[in-house]
User: What shape does this take?
Amino acid sequence: MRWIAREHQFNFPRPTIVMGIVNTTPDSFTDGGRFLDADAAGAQALRLASQGAEILDIGGESTRPGSANVSEQEELDRVIPVIERLAKRPELVLSIDTQKPSVAREALAAGASIVNDIAANRSDAEMWQVVAEAGAGYVCMHMQGTP
Assistant: This one.
């Protein structure tokens, strides 16, 4: 079996694919506030890749319980500069962590190959169309309740 995410391909069976997480938010679970600018976030992504991450997941909206929603523009301002910087390295597989189709569309245009949707497409049916039109990979996460 193969998972195709635009120009990237993962062949199965294999036990795991390691995804390195880079949150560009002030309030995430693990790294909130550490990677708020594109330079710091890009450096962290490259560090994770050098440590074995096969996919680099860039997120601009915290989904920890009790976190505040951010506007589409704020999320774009957080993630697009990071994705554009990393997309200059074609060997990197980039993922956008978002539940907003508009953010996914812009991130895919900037160089992401995968959409990591923590809402499992419950928030906006347009997400399927965005992913399909781009030929992107899709990670559909399950969670109880909402963040």
